[in-house]
Amino acid sequence: MIRTSLFATTTLLVLVLFGLMKRLAFLAPAKRALFSHCGAGMVVFIALLGLNLFGAILVINRKLLLKDTGRKLSHFDNQLQAEGPRALPPFLAEGR
After folding, report:
1. pTM, two decimal places
2. Do the beta carbons of residue 49 and residue 16 sit within 8 Å?
């Protein structure tokens, strides 16, 4: 889940940065002055944007992908209790 959210965040952040570079091409002649004067602020802004995007995508993934997890796990637990240790795969039955 975290891996998926990180991938989506990275993809969106790269798309946003490429879009900004395309729209702000007129600033290219002054990029040295811009980066020396505002570079730290730009890095902080991009980092905070990435962190916020990651948090939003993680919440969306959790809401969409973990809808009925509790119900599914309780059904699995009830099935295990009813059938006993014989229903478990061999690698899980050793621990009981």
Report:
1. 0.64
2. yes
Instruction: Count other C-beta atoms under 10 Å from residue 91's C-beta.
Output: 7
Cα(6)–Cα(74) distance, integer angstroms: 30
User: CA 2 to CA 12: how far, in whole Å?
Assistant: 15
Q: How far apart are CA 32 and CA 17, in angstroms?
A: 18
SS3 of residue 92 by DSSP = helix
Tokens 């980092």: give the residue: 47
Residues with Cβ within 8 Å of residue 10, at least 6 apart in sequence: 50
Angle between helices 2-23 and 31-65 (to 10 degrees): 150
Question: pLDDT of 8-34, one tens digit each?
Answer: 999 999 999 999 999 999 999 998 999
